[in-house]
Predict the structure.
Amino acid sequence: MEPAPAKAKPQGRLLVSTPLDAKDELEERLERCAGVVQALTNGLSEREANDALTANVCKGQQQHEEVCLGLFTLVLTEPTQAQRCYRDLTLVNRDGMNVILVKINQVLMEKFLKLQDVPRTQLVWLVRELVKSGVMGADGVVMTLLKQIAGGDISTKNLWLAENVLDILLEQKEWVLKSGMLIAMSVYTFLRLIVDHGPPNLLPLRQKEVDFCISMLREKFMECLIIGRDLVRLLQNVARIPEMDLLWRDLLHNPQVLSPQFTGVLQLLTARTSRKFLACRLTPDMETKLLFMTSRVRFGQQKRYQDWFQRQYLSTAESQSLRCDLIRYICGVVHPSNEVLSSDILPRWAIIGWLLTTCTSNVAASNAKLALFYDWLFFNPEKDSIMNIEPAILVMHHSMKPHPAITATLLDFMCRIIPHFFPPLESQVRQGVFNSLTFIMEKRVLAHLAPLFDNPKLDRELRSMLRERFPEFCSPPSPPTEVKMEEAVSMEMDNHMLDKEDGCYDNTEAAFSDDEEEVNNKGKKREFRFQPVREAVLEEPVDISPWLDQLDDTMKDKVQQGQRSRCCCLHSDTEAQCEVMQEIVDLILEEDFDTEQMSALASCLSELFRDHFRGDVLPEEITEESLEDSVSKPVCLVFRNLVTMQEDNSGFSVLLDLLAELYQRQPRTGYHLLYYLKASKAANGKMLLYESFAQATALGDLHTCLMMDMKACQEDDVRLLCYLTPSIYSEFPDETLRSGELLNMIVAVIDSTQLQELMCHVMMGNLVMFRKDSVLNILIQSLDWETFEQYSTWQLFLAHSIPLETIIPILQHLKYKEHPEALSCLLLQLRREKPSEEMVKMVLSRPCHPEDQFTTSILRHWTSKHDDTLGEHIKAQLIKNNNQPRKRQSLRSSSSKLAQLTLEQILEHLDNLRLSLSNSKNNFFTQTPILQALQHVQASCDEAHKMRFSDLFSLAEEYEDSQSKPPKSRRKAPASSPRSRKGVAPPTNAEEESASSSASDEEDSKPKAPKRKRKGSSAVGSDSD
C-alpha cells in the first residue's frame, strides 16, 4: 500500500491529467517560466515590476524567452491578471511576439484537447488581443485555431470555439481583409460548419456564419477563388439557404458581379483544391491518427485502430458529415510514397471502404460518394494527380468479389453523376470521367476495366448503363487474363494478410456484405479476399532484405544469424535464438548505436519472431516452472532487459523505442509484455512498467493502449485474458474501473467456468472490478449487452461487497420488456435485503403495467419477512407524496412522472399488492401505519381516486370504525336527537386526539391532521348513525 502516495502529484494548471500521467514537459517548462516572472515581480509595484522584467530580458536571449513565456503562462492561468500580463508582454517583448506565436501554435497543434477550461478560454482571449494589436503572424495562429473547430461536432466546447473565432473575424474584419489566405481558409471552414449547425437552437450561430461567408464571397471573391473546385462542393451543401441561393444565381448567370476576372463556375471546377484547405477540416488529432493508419499500420491489423477512431469521432448522428472531410483528405492529401505502396501498410482504399460501409445516413452516404469521385468530374491529366482518383477505382475493384453491392452502388453513382451534376456542363463531366478511366489504365492501376464494368455480379440494368456510358472500356481483352494491378498495388493486395479473420474493411456487419463463394481458381493468380484463408499463407516467408540493407554490418550479421536459426524449425533452436537476441540487445544498448535503423530492425525482428506471437501463450498447466518456460522466448529478452534497468538509464528509453516500433508491426507485443510482467519472477512488482511502454508508443495514451491490447488478447486467447484480468484491474484501476469497456470485453467471451473463477478471485480479494463511484454507470452501460454478458456482469457485481443501495437507482432505467436480465438479478438480490426507505421508494417508482410483476413480487416478499419496516416506509412515502400535490396543485399536470414518485403510482402498487394478498393469511394491510396513511390520503384525495381505489380505502374505513367503537356509549343519547351535529362533536374531538397521538412521528402531516380527520370522521359518524 506504500506506493500509492508516490503516484500522487500536484495537478498542473494548464493541462488535464490523471495521477498516472507523466508530467508534461511543455507544461513543466511554462510553469517554470511563470515562476521566474513571479519571483522577479513579487512585492513590486506595476512600474517597478515592469522595470525588473525589462532589465531581465536585456541580459540575453534565454532570459527574454523565459520572461515572455512566463507572462504567456500567467495570461493562460490567471484571468484576473491577464490584461496586465499582456500589457507587460507587449512592453518587454523584443522579437515581434514571435516566441509567443510559436508557442501558441505548438499548444494548439499538440495540447489543445488537453487544455483545462480556463487556459482554453484565455488562449482564445489572447489570440483576440494579438489580432487587435495587429501582430504580424497572428493570421497564422487564427488559421491554426480554425483547424481546431471539428466538423460533425455540436458539443458545447466545439460550438463555443466556433462562435468565438467567428466573433474575432467579425470584430476585426478590416484586419482579416488584409490576408488573402485567411479569407479563403475562414470561408472554407465556416461554409463547411454551416451544414452542422441546422438544429433550431443553433440557428443564430448559423446566421452569423452565413452572413460572414456571404460578405467575404461578395467582397473578396478572387481571394476565395484560390480554394478551387471544393468551394463549389461546399456551396452546393448550403444552396437552400436564401442568401446562398442568391449567390448561386450570380455564380451561374452573372459571374461578373462577383469579380470582373471571374468567367464562370467552370473556372472554379477545373481548379484543383490545395491540400491546405482539405487538411484544415481535420483537427490535428484526427490528422495524426489518419496519417498513423496510412503509414504505420499493417494491412489486416487495422480493426482496432478503426474501432478507436469510430468511437472517438464517428459515433454520433451529426458526425456523419465528417466522413466527406475524411475522404477528401485521404484522396487529396494522403499520397503514399512508392516505398509505402510496395509495403504491407494499410492502403487508402481500405480506409475509404470502411468509411463507406459504416455510414448510417443516406444523405451522408451520397455526399461521401461525391467526395470520392469529385476529382474525377473535371479531371485533367496535365494538372491533376493519379493519386486523387486511384482510391475510387480500387475500392470498386476490391469490393467486387466480397461486397458486390458496394461496387454496384459506386458504379451506379459514377454513371448517374454525369448528367445530373450540372446539366449545362454534362459534356465536360463526361470528358472528365473518361479522362480519369483512361489515365487509370495508362498508369496500370488496373490493366483493363471490362472485368469490373461487365461483371456477372452486377445486375443487368447497371451493366447495360455502363455499356451505354463507357463502351470503350467494356470490351474484354483479347486473352482472358485476370485483372492485374501495377506492382505497387498488387503488393497492397497480397502482402501480409496472415492472421486476421476480419473483413477487409473490418466491418463484418456491414449492410452490403453477402455470402462469399468458395471458388477454386485453378491456374489463376490468387485474388484478393476480404477473409483470407489463414493456413494457406502462415508459413510464407517474407523477404527482409530491404530492411537488412538499412542496418549496419554488425547488426545485419546478428539478424541474419537469427534468421538462420529460425529456418531450422527445431525446438532446441529457441535457446540459440535467445542468445542472438541478447547480442542484438547488447548492440542496441551501446552508446554508438544509430537509432535511425531502429525502424528497420523492428521490421526484421517482427518477421523473425512472428511464430512466437502465435498460438497459446499461457501454459495448459500453470506452475512456476511452466510460467518461467513460457517467458523464455527471444522477444521476452527485450522485456527482461527493460525490467532490470532503472528508468533514468539511457538504455531504458532506447529499448522502449524498440518495443514501440515492434508494437506498430506486431500489435500482440502489448499483451505479451503484460503477460511477461505478470508471469515472470524477474518482473515481480514491475507491472507499472507497462505505463512507460504505452506512453512510448505512437498512441501515447495508457487507456487507449491498454484497451487495444486487451482487445487483441481477447481475440487471440481468452484463457490469457482471464489470467491477466486480476493484475490489470489492480494495477490500473483508473483505466479499468471508470468505464465498462474492459468488463464488456471479458464477459463477451468467457464461459461459465471462467466466470466462476473470476468470482472466486473477487471473493478472495484478488480482484476488484467495480467501485462505488462508477458501478452504477457501468451497470447502466451493460443494459445494451447480450443476455449472457449481462448475467455475468451481475454475478461479478454480486460477488463484491457493494451495498445494493449504491445501484438501486438503476431501477429508473429498467423496462420490463427490454431489461429482463437486470430485473431478475435485482429481484433475487432485493429479496435478501431488508427494505430501506430508498429501496422502497425506487421499487414504488416503477410504472405500473399489468405484465410487470416486479414491484408486486418484491413487496409481497417483504410483507412476509419485514412487514413492520415495509409498513413504516410505505406510510412515509404515502404521506410525503400526498402533501406534495396539494401544495403544487396548479403544477401537477406539468410535473414529470418519470422524474419523481407520484401518489397515484403508490396507490396502484398497493392495490396490486392487496389483490395479491387477498387469498393469503398475510395481515400486512391490518397494520396501523398503513391504515393511518390510507386514512390520511383518503381525506384529501379527489373523488376520482376515491372511486378508483375504493377497495383499498375501505380498509381504512373499517379501521376507523374500529377506532371509534369505545366512545359510542357517549354518543347514544344525542345520536337520536334531531340536532345531530352537536351529538357528533364530542367523539370527533376524542378521535382527533387519538389520531394526533398515533401520527406524532409524521412532522409534516401533524398540523393538518385534525382538519382532515374532522371531514373523514363526520362522514363515517353519519354512516354509522
User: Anything to note?
Assistant: Residues 544-711 form one domain.
